[in-house]
Amino acid sequence: MSIFNQMLGNVTQVYLNVAFILCVVIVAAFKPQRIDDRSRFRLACLLFAISIVLPNLVSLFADPGGLLTDRKAAEKNWGVGLFSLVSPFLFALSFLAAIDSITPRDGQQVEE
């Protein structure tokens, strides 16, 4: 398994991550006036970063260097499973926050 797949998850998740990064960078670089709520945009970027880093940190601390016995590893396995569900949830929240940050509020006109 390559380091990128290990870091970013399966192939579909990698494509979603790359598409999200490209869209966020394009909006921030070429259309910054489209960002209506800058704090929510920053929150979206932060949630996205956490969704990428969290599974790696959990797997690192769950079994540092393969030192755990099978029984102890099985006891910690539920935590790894829980955090494997948290990462896609954080990605979804970051996507929704990014969309909400560029959506105009109550009748505001978007400057082109």
Task: Kindly summarize this structure in a few lines.
By secondary structure, the protein is mainly alpha-helical. Helices cover 75% and strands 0% of the residues.
Q: Describe it for me?
A:
- With 112 residues, the protein is mostly helical.
- It has one domain (3-102).
- It has helices at residues 3-8, 11-30, 38-62, 70-102.
- The radius of gyration is 18 Å and the shape is elongated.
- The mean pLDDT is 78.
Approximate helicity band: over 70%
Distance between the termini: 44 Å
Low-confidence stretches: none
Helices and strands, in order, run as HHHH
Provide a count of the helices: 4
Radius of gyration: 18 Å
Taking the sheet with the most strands, its summary is:
none
- Helix and strand content put the structural class at mainly alpha
- Beta-strand content: under 5%
The oligomeric state of the chains shown is: single chain
Number of domains: 1
Net shape = elongated
Q: If you average the pLDDT, what whole number results?
A: 78
**Structure summary, number of beta strands:** 0
